[in-house]
TrEMBL record:
<feature type="compositionally biased region" description="Acidic residues">
    <location>
        <begin position="209"/>
        <end position="220"/>
    </location>
</feature>
<dbReference type="InterPro" id="IPR011990">
    <property type="entry name" value="TPR-like_helical_dom_sf"/>
</dbReference>
<feature type="region of interest" description="Disordered">
    <location>
        <begin position="209"/>
        <end position="269"/>
    </location>
</feature>
<feature type="compositionally biased region" description="Basic and acidic residues">
    <location>
        <begin position="259"/>
        <end position="269"/>
    </location>
</feature>
<protein>
    <submittedName>
        <fullName>Tetratricopeptide repeat protein</fullName>
    </submittedName>
</protein>
<feature type="compositionally biased region" description="Low complexity">
    <location>
        <begin position="221"/>
        <end position="235"/>
    </location>
</feature>
Length: 269
């Protein structure tokens, strides 16, 4: 990317680079903002392949699949690389054309992809099969040496997760549970929610401990307040009964009070 930006005047190259950096920083957390930065970069340097690619991914993250596909095609024409082929096929899926995505999975460009790209293409093809309600075909599509391998690669968790999800959709729950477990085991970066799906199959329900603690504290405080109030009410009732007895008998409820003179003659018996 840096090499591509050298074709621009330095000041312009710096401005474009800043916008591309912001696209990369925001695309996962705030895709709309990332998209806004990508449009600025595109306006400044639309003839730079890296800019077109970044604009494509920003549009893709915002589900603007037609726009993303156009940008990916432009970047591919500029570089001649097949690296974007899987995501281009996924754009076809996003536009409601799974048949086109499947056709792309059989094109010669797939053979030019590295192992990660080929796995990605397999995931897209399986997704297209599911879009067409071909669940069994989707399962078969994902069955590959990469899925069977015990080694953990960057794509392993996502591949196992997709396979487990396809099995579950086909009603093969026991097998799905096994593969969700394998996906969770290999998902060190939390790229999937395999652990949650596994817990759901096992009937485990997660409860927010913090919320429970706060509820317990509030309940305890209310109970304490109720006890204090009850105690106060009881004391007041006892005091009222004692005063009533004093009025009726003319005697004080305590020796100290009996020794004190009445200030008001009407209080005397």
């Amino acid at each position: 990317m840096r090499q591509e930006l050298l074709s621009l005047p330095k000041t312009l190259a710096d401005d474009v680079a800043r916008n591309l950096v912001m696209v990369a920083r925001l695309i996962d957390e705030d895709p709309e903002e990332a998209y806004a930065y990508s449009r600025i970069a595109l306006r400044l340097a639309s003839r730079v392949a890296a800019v077109r690619e970044a604009a494509g991914f920003a549009a893709y993250a915002n589900q603007k699949y037609s726009e993303a596909l156009a940008e990916f095609r432009a970047a591919r024409r500029m570089t001649g690389s097949a690296d974007l082929w899987p995501v281009m096929a996924d754009c076809e899926r996003g536009m409601g054309r799974p048949e086109r995505a499947l056709a792309m999975a059989g094109e010669p460009e797939v053979r030019r992809l590295d192992k990660a790209g080929q796995v990605e293409m397999r995931l897209v093809a399986a997704g297209a099969r599911r879009d067409m309600d071909q669940l069994d075909a989707a399962i078969v599509t994902l069955q590959s040496p990469e899925l069977a391998s015990n080694s953990v690669q960057p794509w392993t968790a996502r591949l196992r997760y997709a396979y487990a999800d396809a099995l579950l959709a086909a009603g093969r729950e026991d097998e799905a549970r096994e593969w969700f477990a394998k996906a969770a085991e290999s998902d060190k970066d939390g790229a999937t929610d395999a652990s949650d799906r596994l817990a759901e199959l096992d009937g485990v329900e997660f409860v927010d401990a913090l919320d429970d603690s706060e509820e317990i504290e509030e309940t305890g405080a209310d109970a304490g307040a109720g006890t204090a109030a009850s105690g106060t009410d009881s004391d007041q009732a006892s005091e009222a009964e004692a005063k009533s007895a004093d009025v009726e008998t003319g005697e004080s409820s305590s020796p100290a009070e009996a020794c004190e003179p009445r200030e008001n003659g009407s209080d005397q018996g």
